[in-house]
Design goal:
The complex is a heterodimer of chains A (about 170) and B (about 160). Chain A is α+β, with helices and mostly antiparallel strands. Chain A has 1 helix and 8 strands; from the N terminus they run H-E-E-E-E-E-E-E-E. Chain A has one helix at about 15-65; strands spanning about 70, 85-90, 95-105, 105-110, 115-120, 125-135, 140-155, 155-165. A 5-stranded antiparallel β-sheet of chain A has the order 1-2-3-4-5, with helices on one face. In chain A, a hairpin with a 2-residue loop joins strand 4 (about 105-110) and strand 5 (about 115-120). Chain A is rod-shaped, with a radius of gyration of 29 Å. The N and C termini of chain A lie far apart (about 115 Å). Chain B has about 160 residues and is α+β, with helices and mostly antiparallel strands. Chain B has helices at about 10-65, 65-70, and strands at about 80-85, 90, 105-115, 120, 125-140, 145-155. In chain B, strands 1, 2, 3, 4, 5 and 6 form a 6-stranded antiparallel β-sheet that branches. In chain B, a hairpin with a 4-residue loop joins strand 1 (about 80-85) and strand 2. The longest helix of chain B has about 55 residues, at about 10-65. Classes of the chains: A alpha+beta (about 170), B alpha+beta (about 160). The interface of A and B includes residues 50, 137 and 166 of A.
Chain lengths: ~170, ~160
């Protein structure tokens, strides 16, 4: 019995080859895209952790130094890492207080009036270097901060340096 | 009567469909790429913001040490760089880069007062007050355009030193 060409079903070999080729190209593109997105997502996540940590930590340190009246040099580690800074400050109620910044492992902590207030950097970021340098102009005292924060997500790794200087307004004579 | 019992898709349909999908993907990747670049570049902006704050405080340190030695002799309108000498901030005309990326400059401008002693565009120059403009410029990649941010403040000779 002869086959009726009108009722032929399925695909010819050339069609199968072409469709497969298109599918393979599309899948390769898709896998490549996901791989690239995953790498750049790691970078975005790391930079976000560094940003949040730097903004929060340096802003807090600058504010405490700004309201400082003097530096306890004996209780501080100045000029080397891991640095420690012990300040006598004036709080929002105009009362005398103290602020202390120090590294516990690679986490920056703050103590206010001797009580630990918790970490200043987010858990995804580590403070690998923290140096406080003392400034004495006779009229005023100041602190220069040098901080290195790093973060790693998957295969991505970022390390950024941050610098700030703040004059202790309470030391104005 | 011709009965069309053909099922499935033709090659042209598959090619067009794939092209639409691919175009969609490429646009999506481009948009994500823009977002990722902006997010990573934001770290530089935060670094620059602290460098700007430090620049202002550095000039304040120079003022606190001695207005007559550190601020008064500087030429108004000239570009200076801030240099940490190990114990204090000083100014220099030698260009330097911070971490091989950020260029920070400080420009002092004269401040004028009108007949009512208010700060004005012109009038009598007040030798005991200067406007300080600190700028930080950087490139996020060697081929990128330079981004520059500036902050300004007034500093007075409050210690008469």
């Amino acid at each position: 019995m002869l086959q009726n060409p009108k009722t032929k079903k399925g695909l010819s070999l050339i069609e199968v080859v072409l469709y497969s080729a298109i599918l393979i190209i599309a899948m390769s593109l898709l896998i490549y895209t996901f791989e690239r997105i995953s790498v750049s997502y790691g970078r975005v996540k790391s930079s976000k952790a560094i940003e949040e940590s730097a903004t929060y930590a340096i802003d807090r340190m600058a504010r405490e130094i700004n309201s400082g009246t003097s530096i306890d040099v004996a209780a501080s580690t100045l000029g080397s890492t891991p640095g420690r800074l012990f300040l006598y400050t004036i709080d929002e109620n105009n009362a005398s207080s103290t602020s202390e910044f120090y590294l516990s492992g690679q986490t920056l902590h703050i103590k206010v009036a001797g009580v630990d207030q918790g970490p200043l950097n987010v858990s995804g970021a580590r403070v690998t270097s923290l140096i406080f340098r003392s400034i004495d102009t006779t009229q005023t005292k100041g602190i220069k901060i040098e901080m290195v924060i790093e973060s790693a997500t998957g295969t991505s790794y970022l390390s950024k340096n941050f610098y700030d200087t703040m004059v202790l307004r309470g030391t104005n004579k | 009567m011709k009965i069309n019992n053909k099922t499935g898709m033709g090659l042209v349909e598959v090619v067009i469909g794939s092209a639409i999908l691919a175009t969609g993907f490429i646009i999506l990747i481009q948009v994500y790429g823009l977002y990722a670049r902006a997010a990573v570049a934001n770290v530089s902006k935060i670094q620059a913001a602290f460098l700007l704050e430090e620049g202002q405080e550095a000039v304040r340190v120079m003022r606190d040490k001695s207005w007559s030695s550190n601020i008064a002799p500087l030429t108004a309108g000239s570009t200076y760089y801030l240099y940490w000498n190990g114990t204090l901030w000083t100014s220099t005309t030698t260009a330097s880069m911070i971490d091989h990326k950020f260029a920070r400059t400080a420009i002092l401008q004269n401040v004028y007062r009108d007949a009512s002693q208010n700060i004005a565009v012109s009038g009598t120059s007040d030798a005991n007050i200067k406007k300080i403009v600190v700028s930080v410029g950087w490139k996020d990649s060697p081929t990128a355009a330079t981004t520059t941010k500036s902050v300004s403040t007034y500093l007075t000779n409050i210690f008469s030193n």
